[in-house]
Each structure stands twice: as C-alpha cells, then as structure tokens.
C-alpha cells in the first residue's frame, strides 16, 4: 500500500503530500495536539485495540479540533444484527467485526473527559457504515 501511495503521489504530482509513513495506529509518531482534524476512514474497527487507536487520535488533536471517523458499526439489535452474526465467519476475513457496535464508541467517549460526540450519521446503504464526529473540548471544559 505504501508503494502504491508513493507512485500515486508521484504520478499525480501531489505536491501537498509532505510524506508517507507506516505507523502503528496505537503508537503514532506525531506530537501531542498537532492536528486540528484527525480523519480515520475504515480504520478503527479493524485495528487490534480500537480504543487505543481512538486515544491516539484524541492525543494528537488540538483542543477544539475534531475526530472524523467513517467506520463499519455493528447493529445492536434487529434483523441487521442477526444477519451480521450469521455472516461474521465470512466478513472477519475482510477485517470486519460484528462485535464492534455503537455502544463501544459510546463507552470510549464516556470514559474520556476531553471528548464529546457531535454527530453520528448512518451512511447508505442500510446504515452499515456510520460517520462519527467527536470534538476535543478545551482542558477543564465539560464534555
């Protein structure tokens, strides 16, 4: 993937790309509070420790900044929940995990005093993926 990205940057003359690196989502090399926005599309539910990756996103974010996630989120109940459970042996090969429900994101945000949910939007088709936006509050502010 890194070689493909490097070729694409060169082929398209993407001068705005400063560098491409391989990093562990749980231990990123960026300094604290170094970004206004952290975007992680299709990442959080595929890493070994999603909460640690979310903590890294929050660590790198400046106060007042946003974490924007597009993620596959399992249904908590209903027909979709049943179908996901039945398909889990197949979709786990894609890196998807049916046990990664909205409740897991909510628990993560609740345990942090510096992060609050500002948007949760189901994405078509079928709401299988969600767009989530979290804000990093100023130090000492209510989450």
How would you summarize what this structure contains?
Helix content is 31%, strand content 25%.
Broad CATH class: Alpha Beta
CATH fold-level assignment? Rossmann fold
Strand content: 25-35%
| Total strands | 4
Provide the low-confidence segments as ranges: none
Measured on Cα atoms, how large is the radius of gyration?
17 Å
Strand order of the largest sheet: 1-2-4-3
Q: What would the average pLDDT be, to the nearest integer?
A: 88
Task: Give the name of the CATH architecture.
Answer: 3-Layer(aba) Sandwich
What is the total number of structural domains? 1
End-to-end span in angstroms?
A: 37 Å
| Helix amount | 25-40%
List SSEs in N-to-C order.
Answer: HEHEHHEE
Largest sheet, described in full? 4 strands, mixed
Name the overall outline: globular
* Class derived from helix and strand content: alpha+beta
Q: What's the CATH H-level superfamily name?
A: Vaccinia Virus protein VP39
Helix count equals 4
How is this structure best described in words?
The protein is of the alpha+beta class and 143 residues long. It has a single domain (2-136), classed as Rossmann fold (3-Layer(aba) Sandwich), CATH 3.40.50. Helices cover 31% and strands 25% of the residues. It contains four helices and four strands; from the N terminus they run H-E-H-E-H-H-E-E. The chain starts with a helix and ends in a 7-residue tail after the last strand. The mean pLDDT is 88.
List keywords for this structure.
single chain, 143 residues, Rossmann fold, 4-stranded mixed beta sheet, 4 helices, 25% strand
